[in-house]
Specification:
Chains A, B: This is EBNA-1 nuclear protein. 2 copies of one chain form a homodimer. By secondary structure, chain A is an alpha/beta fold. Helix content of chain A is 36%, strand content 16%. The first copy, chain A, has 2 domains: 115 residues, Rossmann fold, CATH 3.40.50; 201 residues, Rossmann fold (3-Layer(aba) Sandwich). A 6-stranded parallel β-sheet of chain A has the order 7-8-6-9-10-11, with helices on both faces. In chain A, strands 2-1-3-4-5 form a 5-stranded parallel β-sheet, sandwiched between helices. In chain A, α7 packs across α8. The interface between A and B is large, with 38 and 38 residues.
């Protein structure tokens, strides 16, 4: 487990896309995001108090999160110097960069000397089992998508938060680096060895018997030729009772692959249900989540209504319009089934 | 590349199932299998000349293949002692065991001192790309299955060999440890990191323009809840023009999972075609391969005839009855298409 609260690192970043992980934390975990660290040449802000390392530690921060992306996921000299200073001020370091903290001798030496922890959230734990497909107790929802990066993490987090607001037990199960930092736990599924994909999900979403829900963060797409194997193993390991389909209505083609068009919603629903039924014959779709961030509000609402009518499924932009209708559908049918 | 010819290790094995890799090499690569090494307490033989390490080296052997499996894939003291003696006699060492040769300091030291190579065929090469799904030149056949271990490697090797006998260029593309030792090259797909499954297959079966065929060894099954992610990525990376479905007609349940029945042939064909069409819309099934090793010959022939009639696909036990009818189907349609 990564100790909280966090100090969120922006460093020298000037491109908003580069601080995606820090922003995700500020948005979804304001309760543990105590401040932001940025150099004078960084024009970005998360609207958190700006702190240096000593001030953050004094304010209670326990971990500096290097929540930025740069070309190639490299751990540059600037990052290393800042991480060393943060450790000297009393902070642990967490990173989702491809280049591992634990592969940098200066950081390893300083952590050992100062008694600090280095968290590489892209390193899977060493004891992941082979999946067994055995039915386990508990209710699970998985987000799936027409493509990568269409809002699966945001949707899953919104669903978890909305379920909790209704007084129900709900746990977000992270499968990517930003999600892991938000939850403080999870599995970096893209870094797991191929034979262990479904087993990793069985491990991260174990049996539960409190009548609560596991909300599992989806990855990739069955229609993405680079990553569909990950999505397949995720569906099998999750044994989902419910699916929510995430879609970006203005995406021109599959992410990174201009030669692959996006699949339609109907075929994506069909393919995901087929794959999911292997480990849970009763799986059903309970909603569609659209990322309408580039659309005007009336246009976005009209699109949600039109897709909702076409597929007979509650449709919303979770971040913009909430997920209440999707939750109604999720919680409705089992109740009726229980009465009947 | 692993240097040949091989000396095949049987060691102290007494269970025929434990020498599967050595036997696969003796069966499919008699041309490079120069002898067998076994201790006096080993009752098994591959019907190759029995040689000690010095005699094997003098006869031309270049690599000792530890083609055995034991509980947990461990590299026991007996194996280490034998490997050290083999290196002293001039041989490199190759192993598909889970426990890596390169993780054993005594072997690493001896290899460095003597100028020998240690080949851990379960270690993927470090430069595997993310798959891109781009159409590449060449013709590809992939074996798929109702389950794991239903004869996909044997079928693929039989197809490659039969194509060559017809005078056509054909390359076996290995995706498992035994196949890699047989081919001298390939990718240990189950050990590749999840995000790189399809990319690993794109790499191992690159563009070819000699009108020959790549015959790609399948892994797992879309219906195996532990490994379907691997099978999915393999289908996408292979972009197969042709599929051959492999099936064990007496398998009682999915390998290792008594709670999962085997899927039917029809649904397995359907699922594989659906997944494969993402990267090759023209994929077709050209045959069914049955493992009838436990059946009497008349019974086996009757079963092949019955399945052939039911599905309209050439059906055979490749190892027992050959693959000529499957090759006829494979080579027939493209020819007609070319004429038309």
């Amino acid at each position: 487990m990564i100790e909280t609260p966090y100090l969120l690192y922006l460093g020298h970043s000037s491109d908003p896309a580069d601080i995606k992980t820090s922003r995700g934390l500020a948005v979804f975990r304001p309760d543990i995001s105590i401040g932001e660290y940025r150099h004078d040449n960084c024009p970005l802000t998360l609207n958190l108090p700006r702190m240096d390392f000593a001030a953050a530690h004094a304010a209670g921060a326990r971990t500096l999160v290097l929540g930025i992306a740069n070309a190639g996921g490299k751990l540059g000299e600037d990052l290393i110097v800042d991480a060393l200073a943060a450790m000297a001020a009393g902070l642990d370091i967490a990173s989702g960069l491809h280049h591992r903290l634990n592969a940098e001798p200066r950081l390893v030496e300083a952590a050992a000397r100062l008694g600090r922890k280095l968290h590489d959230v892209r390193d899977p734990r060493p004891d992941i089992p082979i999946g067994n497909g055995k039915k386990r107790a508990g209710k699970r929802l998985l987000t799936v998508g027409t493509d990568c990066s269409v809002g699966k993490m945001y949707t899953t987090l919104c669903l978890a938060s909305a379920l909790e607001k209704r007084g129900l037990a709900a746990d977000f199960r992270a499968t990517g680096q930003t999600g892991i930092l938000i939850a403080g736990d999870g599995v970096p599924l893209d870094a797991v060895v191929a034979d262990f994909i479904s087993g990793a999900i069985e491990q991260v979403s174990p049996a539960r018997s409190d009548d609560g829900w596991d909300l599992i963060e989806g990855q990739g797409s069955l229609y993405h030729p680079s990553f569909a194997g990950v999505s397949t193993g995720l569906l099998h390991g999750a044994q989902p009772d419910a699916l929510v389909l995430c879609h970006d209505p203005v995406r021109p083609h599959m992410r990174g692959l201009p030669h692959y068009p996006l699949p339609g919603i109907a075929e994506t629903l069909d393919a995901n249900l087929r794959v999911a039924r292997l480990t849970n014959a009763d799986v059903r779709v309970v909603g569609i989540a659209l990322n309408t961030s580039t659309m005007a509000e009336d246009e976005a609402r009209a699109l949600c209504a039109s897709i909702e009518a076409e597929f007979g499924l509650p449709t919303s932009d979770p971040y913009r319009f909430g997920v209440e209708t999707i939750l109604d559908r999720l919680l409705d049918t089992p109740l009726l089934a229980a009465i009947a």
